[in-house]
Design a protein that fits this description.
This protein is an alpha/beta fold. It has one domain. Helices cover 43% and strands 7% of the residues. Strands 1-2-3-4 form a 4-stranded mixed β-sheet. Strand 1 and strand 2 form a beta hairpin. The longest helix is centred in the first third of the chain and has 15 residues. The radius of gyration is 18 Å and the shape is globular. The protein starts with a strand and ends in an 8-residue tail after the last helix.
């Protein structure tokens, strides 16, 4: 769901694997302080402010708000999901014994296997599905609705943007960083091309705002 920033007209639309944990925590701490409530209560940010699908009624419900979001190259989001959710957190171990075996999927896949079988892993594991959904799933398909669209490279300008719209300084942490560093160059060219085709709609709609993959 979009998260309002207290004392402003701003509304943040989160996207998994695009700094959303850090941004949510900073906003929720700010909102708690603005309300005179203990900020420590916001430790489990994704329970307090879950990231959900874009609702068709949002443009009506939040007509007078200024929307902002942070986007990330779809390929880099998948690679980050693999490194952090699969390798570092070992989330596939959450599945009941035999679930992956029945589908012919390894519980600890290498990167190439994970990407080739991504639809199957997403079908069987809600966490993988959530972290690899398209940008359009969370943000809709009309970027012009957003007052400001940030990418990860210009995220350092976000606190100034919030301050300029009535929020005091927010400190952004850097969370969910566990796992190996993997980039598009680590993929075979054919597999990289397949993954980009998988997210073709994201590139078509959000491409003009995306920083190209290194």
């Amino acid at each position: 769901m979009p998260i309002p920033v207290a004392a402003t007209r701003l509304l943040y639309f989160p996207v998994p694997k695009a700094a959303c944990t850090s941004i949510k925590r900073a906003i929720l701490i700010h909102n708690a302080q603005a309300a005179g409530a203990p900020s420590a209560a916001q430790a489990r940010v994704h329970e307090v402010a879950p990231t959900t699908r874009f609702h068709p009624l949002y443009p009506v419900r939040h007509l007078h708000k200024r929307w902002f979001c942070v986007i990330r190259d779809p390929v880099q989001r998948v690679l980050s999901a693999y490194a952090n959710r699969v390798v570092f957190h070992g989330e596939l171990a959450d599945l009941p014994q035999g679930t992956l075996d029945t589908a012919g999927l390894p519980r600890a896949p290498d990167l190439e296997t994970f990407i080739r079988r991504l639809p199957d892993y997403a079908r069987l594991h809600a966490g993988i599905d959530h972290h690899t959904r398209a940008l359009t799933h969370f943000l809709g398909d009309r970027p012009r609705r957003y007052h400001r669209i940030f990418t990860l490279p210009d995220l350092e300008t976000l606190p100034a943007y919030l301050k300029g719209h009535g929020a005091p300084d927010l400190t952004l942490g850097h969370e969910q960083t566990g796992g190996p560093r993997i980039g598009p160059d680590d993929l075979p060219p054919a597999l990289l091309a397949d993954l980009r085709r998988h997210y073709a709609e994201d590139y078509r709609i959000w491409g003009p705002w995306l920083t190209p993959s290194p």
